[in-house]
Specification:
- The protein has 19 helices and 14 strands.
- The protein is α/β, with parallel strands linked by helices.
- It has 4 domains: 132 residues, Response regulator (Rossmann fold); 171 residues, 3-Layer(aba) Sandwich (Rossmann fold), CATH 3.40.50; 76 residues, Helicase, Ruva Protein, domain 3, CATH 1.10.8; 45 residues, Arc Repressor Mutant, subunit A (Orthogonal Bundle).
- Helix 13 crosses helix 15, helix 17 packs across helix 18 and helix 17 crosses helix 19.
Length: 452
């Protein structure tokens, strides 16, 4: 049942409207002026407000202004006489959704209320969606108490207010994507789109199409025109994750788009202007890649305006317990059904977490399943961490020859042998060599390019 507030300084008018709306099944409350209405709105939610324009203490225009300042998602409809329709029209320019003229026609009121309540539902859905986005992208998901992460968040808050390009560095699983969403949400572009693209997850032949879109028939399989991430992110933020995996050709086109703020779809000639804030991320050393000729120096300087490096979890061990409890509560829907024993907390803090926060989240989920019914996660529950603990590196079984070696060739040989040992399972091969999946892909691409 919709909840409607009627605001008018004339008791007869309030009473008449309340009867009409009550007959249609709505729950109606009354206020004698804007000041009284504002108190009621602050205390309880309403689905819509119907208010007179001219009232003592606080008129309808001022009430509308206050409601909008408080960002209360409730539509406002004005009551006006025929002689003051201009006032109602002006109020609509300021944010009112409709007006009702005196004398009242019940059919007209019913139609206006039904239409306005439809808008009210949309406003409520938008509010809930923004809250959900905020929960997923904002500060309540970035859990920390360590000084290192506090310094990172200070930098993120400072750069969020600007248009500067941000480069996020750090190992896999440290939360670079989450920090990118936080920067976007806290920026002036926070109400626009946040568009992520993992450069390592798409085929090198399709990178340009993903970034800039393509015209129909521009290549085999392009059966219709498609917008790229640039156009989709216009006026918002484009997040390029694993940017170090872009080919040199794609880097050149990306640099041109950044410099000119215009793009061309693959197979097209039209130059399309775009207004985008850029955030990039990598777990590679782009400066080293620049020295090796694998990454364009001019593009590096363009995107590395404001670098932020996220520390690995092993360097902020105090956050491990805080994060573990956070993940546990989230998995339990906010309920406190399961706890960690003191031994388990000590293990969580001492474990090196090679997979960082991502590994911790997965470990908590696994432990919660294993501890179901006991109410306590113990060191025994977490015993799988001990079996996963990285072993100490074995001493080298050979000595370097006097004439030296080609380190790159040794790396490529190790990649080939690891793939053979792991039966072409890249994830297993990367783990076998103690590498991240991204670093292993870089070495694998070198092997394949040599074979070609």
């Amino acid at each position: 049942m919709a909840h409607i507030l009627v605001v008018d300084d004339e008791e007869r008018m309030r009473h008449l409207l309340s009867i009409m709306l009550g007959r249609q099944g709505y729950r109606v409350e009354q206020a004698g002026d804007g000041a009284e209405a504002l108190e009621m709105i602050s205390a309880a939610p309403f689905d819509m407000i119907i208010t007179d324009i001219k009232m003592p203490r606080m008129d309808g225009i001022e009430l509308l202004k206050r409601v909008m300042e408080m960002e209360i998602p409730v539509p406002v409809v004005f009551i006006t006489a025929f002689a003051t329709v201009e006032s109602a029209v002006e109020a609509m320019r300021q944010g009112a959704v409709d007006y009702i003229t005196k004398p009242f026609e019940e059919a007209r009121i019913a139609l206006t209320v039904e239409r306005t309540l439809g808008l009210s539902r949309i406003m409520a859905e938008n509010r809930n969606l923004k809250q959900e986005i905020g929960r997923k992208a904002g500060g309540d998901e970035i859990v920390y108490e360590s000084k290192k992460m506090a310094a990172v968040m200070d930098l993120a808050a400072m750069v969020a207010a600007t248009e500067a390009a941000v480069m996020l560095g750090g190992e896999s699983g440290t939360g670079k994507d989450l920090l990118a969403r936080y920067i976007h949400a806290a920026s002036p572009r926070g109400k626009e789109r946040f568009v992520p693209l993992n450069c390592a997850a798409i085929s090198p032949h399709l990178v340009e199409s993903e970034l800039f879109g393509h015209e129909k028939g521009s290549f085999t399989g392009a059966v219709q025109k498609s917008l790229g991430k640039f156009e989709y992110a216009d006026r918002g933020t484009l997040f390029l994750d694993e940017i170090g995996d872009l080919s040199l050709e794609a880097q050149a086109r990306l640099l041109r788009a950044l410099q000119e703020k215009k793009i061309q779809r693959v197979g097209g000639n039209e130059e399309i202007p775009v207004d985008i804030r850029f955030i990039c991320a990598t777990n590679q050393s782009l400066s080293e890649n620049v020295k090796k000729g694998k990454f364009r120096e001019d593009l590096f300087f363009r995107i590395n305006v404001f670098p932020i490096d996220l520390p690995p979890l092993r360097e902020r061990a105090d956050d491990a317990i805080l994060l573990a409890r956070h993940f546990l509560r989230r998995l339990e829907g906010g309920l406190e059904k399961t706890e960690f024993s003191s031994g388990a907390l000590r293990l969580l803090k001492e474990y090196p977490w090679p997979g960082n926060v991502r590994e911790l989240a997965n470990a908590v989920e696994r432990a919660m399943i294993l501890a179901r019914g006991t109410g306590t996660i113990t060191t025994e529950t977490l015993s799988f961490l001990e079996t996963n603990r990285p072993a100490a590196a074995a001493p080298l079984a050979f000595r370097l020859p006097p004439e030296g070696i080609s380190l790159e060739e040794v790396e490529r040989a190790m990649v080939r042998q690891a793939l053979e040992t792991c039966r072409d399972n890249q994830t297993a091969a990367a783990k076998f060599l103690g590498l991240t999946r991204a670093k292993f892909r870089v070495l694998l691409n070198q092997v394949r390019s040599q074979q070609e």
